[in-house]
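Page header: ASSEMBLY MODEL / two components / 964 residues total.
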Amino acid sequence: MTFCLYPTAICVAGYSSDKNEILELLLPLKLFTDDNQGLCAERDFKVVHGGFSDGSIHCLKHIPGTRCVVTNDGFNSNLQVWDLGGEDCDVIKRTGVLQLKSASSDKGVKIAPGLTGDPCVLHGSQISDIQLTELTSGKPLYSLGKDIPDLLSSLQFVSGSVFLACACNGDLYVGDTRNPSGLQNNPAGGREGVHWCMGVKTDLSSSDPSSCSVARLSSACQVVVSDLRDLRAPLFQAQLHVQRKTTSDDFMKVTWAPALDNCLAVSGFDGMVRIYDTASWRPELMEFQPLFIHRGHMMSDDQFDTSSAVVTTHVWHPSRPRTVLSAAVDGSVHVWDWVDKATASC
Amino acid sequence: MPEIKVTPLGAGQDVGRSCILVSIGGKNIMLDCGMHMGFNDDRRFPDFSYITQQGRLTEFLDCVIISHFHLDHCGALPYMSEMVGYDGPIYMTHPTKAICPILLEDFRKITVDKKGETNFFTSQMIKDCMKKVVPLNLHQTVQVDDELEIKAYYAGHVLGAAMVQIKVGSESVVYTGDYNMTPDRHLGAAWIDKCRPDILISESTYATTIRDSKRCRERDFLKKVHETVERGGKVLIPVFALGRAQELCILLETFWERMNMKAPIYFSTGLTEKANHYYKLFITWTNQKIRKTFVQRNMFEFKHIKAFDRSYADNPGPMVVFATPGMLHAGQSLQIFKKWAGNEKNMIIMPGYCVQGTIGHKILNGQKKLEMENRQTVIEIERCEPGCCHLSLEVKLQVEYMSFSAHADAKGIMQLIRMAEPRNMLLVHGEAKKMEFLKDKIEQEFTINCFMPANGETTTVITNPSVPVDISLNLLKREMALGGPLPDPKKPRTMHGTLIMKDNSLRLVSPEQALKELGLNEHQLRFTCRVQLQDPHSDPDTLSRIYTHLKSVLKGYTIQHLPDGTVMVESIVIKVSSSAEEPNTKVLLLSWSYQDEDLGSFLSTLLKKGLPSGLSSM
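Prediction written out in full:
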């Protein structure tokens, strides 16, 4: 199960091997009201649009400013483009396929929607084949062209044309779609055999590089935080105390809270989502305890099951502080928050 | 073609006012007869003119079936049976029969006495209507007449709610009414066997909803109640007499016990006894757990919940009160509301849908000031004119809405389809254009058709019923003697016979027997065909050559060269002749009977090709 969240709705999709559904669910009104208001008519998700996919959906991203999502099945480099539909019909239809020019066989791709300008999407399976494609025409607008076969684990725009690409080995590349030959490499200095992914927090209204924080998460449960001023030197880092329940690195995810400062969420090692406050973290590697752990996905039918539950993805609510949506292998979607002990009264 | 017709009645696509007409095997059945609570004019009743423009409905309907006691499923029943006119049987389960008249009378009182309606059914009409009711037991097949039978299944949702199977011959329809696929604290979940109906009719109001977990919903409810009570406030929960109220009572009772809460919980007078009485009477309709514990302790004999008295509303300190009616439009719940509305420490929790126009609806929409007619207790009086006295109520208490209604959502509908395995699916009360995804989903997952008729629109489903027929022993023996694979339901075998339909029996007999029985003579059909052939031999020689040719081609067939100058292949006769002017142009005469038609036409085609040259005449 994977999903992506945009202001009023959430799009979820399954990733079993054959037919899957893509559903656009209206967020329950309860998430739009303040705690104090008291008037809350609805707390259920409503299916607004739905569609069918022949293959699995590994990656699902909404393109801002459009009613489109793009998906990838994790087995080849094609992107499926879907139209979420309007008022008159509730079926999500596939409208096209975007291809990666210099694709490398059977790997899935990572996707980053363009943030400004005409709808476009950045995608690639390894550093060398990263390409920016215009959504409507399918025309490639930019490609990296550097022969770096490192596998990609995360891809994200930090401004209209600058993007970050995190390779599986932890190296962080900074590219600019206006400048195809320019590419900056910032190695993570990690150990061999460790898989990395990244989470980026950007402030589009500010051009100050310190406002863009990058957190890299390793499969050894380390988090390294830097910002755009100098991606090589970690500002601070932490060793997380996690007992991995799954050997797959596919679900590792680290994200920054949009409505809070210095707040990170980590998931994908087991059936829990952990929240960390990085304000107390230091440049030297030390172990830190989480601020909060969501264990809900391990509760199945009144039984506490630690073995099979794995959280596949999570996302922060864009405006409600301390509110996270997470999904797990059993198809459950949880919307939860935690009480901030410091400010709670009673 | 045999077909089943389904038409939902009504004038609009709102929630409520369930009334569906089904025509099956020549029988007409009305499923539910609900009232729409939002309208005050004729739009609140289903449009019966579809059945007949004037006059009574009795001759047009074989029976009426009511699924459960909610007014949007039975509210228009007295109007239909007594004011429009229907004298046939009305089927419903025992609890529905017991509770229906109480709700109808309650509703009638409010509509007529309080609102002063005139074109409404009377108390006597309700009584007369209920006299026509025939009660149903679960899983019991009831013969409405010698062709139509019905059977009720457990639907959950509320006490006595049923799903109904309607069967005529081998065609059947299942109507779900409102149902719930997840059990709750006092009712079980809906269940049906793999009855494989031709059509499964289901409500689809919540079909596009993915419900929040019951746990979260209950926890939120309990949290709100707890918070209010802890700060000394009062909680008012307006409920209908029977239905979700019992569920919430059990929930609160369990919570109070666990948390050792001291604040009192009250239940409107009259309500407790009535509800308890019915739940005790119909204990078999509640869920397993309640039945099991009933011997030691009656779940509805509450420790922490007591009967309410009017004067308690003025008591200081926290309390929780369940009061009727549910939409705050009159009665005790409204009285209590007027007393508690001005204090922001208090809370009101609306546990269900409120129809537009009711106070419940207004406060849920955030209205903070209400204009009401002054009936009894007054909080503030604003006299604006002599002789007119109304009160303006400020709503300061916290207003919460928690939907506890037990309806099937998208997942539930799919589950039910999996259980019953219908051949076709029909969804009612949805928004047609927004249901295409669900329609696709059902069609793809189960490869069945899914229909969504609008109110007043008829859906016709072609069925494929099997007709049972008696076969004569002779014919059966003859077929068995033919050999071949044993009969298999998955591989139908074609056979020949004659079907005799006499009176009401259908018999399959051999043609000879049929002729004998009917006193008819058998006609013999013979075909004759002339084939021209060029052959330089004499006629007899040509015939011999034909004989040789056929013997080599048709191995395994009886071929004779007879002394009378003919060749016989089975029963087919072949003669050769020629005219004196053209002795080499032979005319072959072939003659065969109908039974040998295939062989006959094969022979004529074969001989048209001519004789091979290397043949010698033996």
